[in-house]
Specification:
Layout (H helix, E strand, L loop, with lengths): L16 E3 L5 E3 H9 L19 E2 L1 H16 L12 E3 L4 E3 L14 E3 H55 L7 H48 L3 H15 L15 H5 L2 H8 L3 E4 L13 E3 L5 E4 L19 E2 L8 E7 L6 E7 L16 E7 L3 E4 L5 E3 L7 E7 L4 E6 L4 E7 L6 E6 L12 E3 L2 E4 L4
Helix pairs in contact: 3-4, 3-5, 4-5
């Protein structure tokens, strides 16, 4: 109310309010002085030029201002003793006059000077404001993460859709039904994941909006110069300041691209009982370090040296340039081949689902890794608890990885000359994933990718 009853020039309650041509009201002295300045013959609010400087008294507004001023003055006095309110009762949480403190209603109560009470409660509100501001900043960061994840999901969906269409173009017309089914599955997952992230963003926005309202309310209270008005509204403001804020969980419902794109031709052609080329392992882009680039068919990984802007979801490696296969194994016998070509550095093998994926990583079975590696073009090693050097007479260009889950074996073989490289033995537990690292290219000789080899598979009718 006070804002509406204040002059736009002096920002105080209207004194002798008058109307000008555009029907805006000002204090008579304020508008007169304003128009005395050279080149100012317009309204201070709407900037409309006035044809005349006739000032019409606004008696209705003057009456409202007078009533408001009397009401404000009465709020400074004790309703019982008509004395000025100068004390505050801590026990009853209400302002008092000097006569009230001697009444039996407040006998033995803890009293404060009104100004001291205002200062104390303002300090309390300032203390409450800091964690709320921090929480708002935290929520804003989470929302930004949500928005980035949503954008990434949409990009993933678009990329996967293009890949699906590209692969279907190589098939015959009678495969259209299978293409439609695959696209619908992708669309459903994308819409479901996008809807979930939009819901999370809306939740974060609501929390931030609520925190903003609380912050604004507290800041307005802290600016309050009227002690009585401040104390009257303090309990409600304090209660609102201490209201618990719901936690925003960081979630990353990324699209399972491997499920939609991986070995798509194999899955479709299997239904046609024919012969296809299929990769036994497909890379999972949701685990790939931001410094890696995967091919569209998810069979090739290379080191780029440039960090891409990707969601830092829990499944993703960040510092180390690693990536996992999209399918994990908890039983059975499995094998796949990796073309390492002329690379000078690489790491390949098996990794547990429970491995640490953030920061520096040490490759060993105790840490959930069964891998072999190459360094400097000639130094082959098995990543045991203490690294074991391997003496190889021939530099393998293509390596087969063999997993016997129940047998507790992870073996590596040179595909071209059918020689054994190394075997890990022990008990295997949990879900195990193919592991790949093309390593960095610090020497300028390791730019080639790691490539998962196709396998020729003949599908027989059941």
């Amino acid at each position: 109310m006070e804002d509406h009853l204040s002059c736009a020039v002096c920002h105080n309650l209207f004194q002798d309010p008058v109307l000008i041509d555009c029907d805006h009201s000002f204090c008579r002295s304020c508008i007169t002085q304003y128009w005395e300045s050279p080149g100012t013959a317009a309204c201070p609010i709407c900037r409309r030029e006035t044809s005349s400087k006739i000032l019409r008294p606004n008696r209705t507004l003057a009456g409202i201002v007078e009533s408001f001023a009397k009401r404000e003055t009465s709020q400074q006095e004790c309703s019982r003793h008509k004395e000025t309110l100068t004390l505050f009762c801590q026990t009853d949480k209400q302002p008092l006059c000097v006569l009230c403190q001697h009444s039996k209603n407040h006998r033995g109560h803890e009293l404060l000077v009104l100004e001291e009470a205002v200062q104390e409660f303002k300090e309390e509100l300032k203390t409450s404001l800091k964690p709320i501001l921090d929480k708002k900043e935290e929520c804003a960061a989470v929302r930004s993460d949500y928005e980035k994840t949503l954008k990434h999901i949409q990009d993933q969906g678009e990329m996967a859709e293009k890949q699906i269409k590209a692969e279907f173009e190589t098939l015959h017309q009678f495969l259209c039904d299978q293409e439609r089914i695959a696209l619908e599955d992708l669309k459903l997952e994308r819409e479901r994941n996008c809807l979930e992230m939009k819901g999370k963003i809306e939740d974060a926005t609501e929390v931030i909006s609520s925190l903003s309202d609380t912050i604004q309310d507290i800041e307005e209270r802290l600016k309050e110069e009227d002690s009585i008005k401040f104390l009257t509204k303090f309990p409600e403001t304090q209660k609102r300041a201490k209201r618990p804020v719901p936690e925003l969980l960081k979630v990353y419902p990324l699209i399972n691209v491997g499920k939609h794109v991986g070995s798509l031709q194999y899955r479709v052609w299997k239904k046609m009982l024919t012969v296809i080329n299929a990769a036994p392992v497909i890379l999972d882009p949701n685990t790939a370090s931001p410094y890696l680039l995967l091919s569209d068919d998810l069979r090739t990984v290379r080191y780029t040296g440039k960090q891409r802007d990707l969601p830092n979801n829990p499944q993703r490696f960040d510092f180390c340039v690693n990536v996992l296969g999209s399918e994990g194994f908890t039983s059975g016998i499995h094998s796949w081949e990796v073309d390492v070509g002329n690379k000078t550095n690489w790491d390949i093998g098996i990794a547990k689902d429970s491995i640490i994926r953030k920061g520096q990583i040490s490759l060993s079975p105790d840490n959930g890794y069964w891998t072999v590696m190459l360094r400097n073009g000639t130094e082959y090693s098995a990543c045991t608890q203490t690294v074991k050097c391997l003496e190889l007479s021939v530099h393998p260009r293509k390596i087969r990885i063999y997993l016997d889950y129940e047998g507790g074996k992870v073996s590596f073989h040179d595909v071209d000359n059918l020689t054994h490289i190394y075997t890990f033995n022990g008990t295997l537990t949990g879900k195990l994933y193919p592991f790949f690292s093309p390593s960095n290219d610090s020497d300028g000789k390791n730019s080639d990718p790691l490539v998962i080899c196709y396998r020729r598979v003949t599908i027989q009718e059941d």
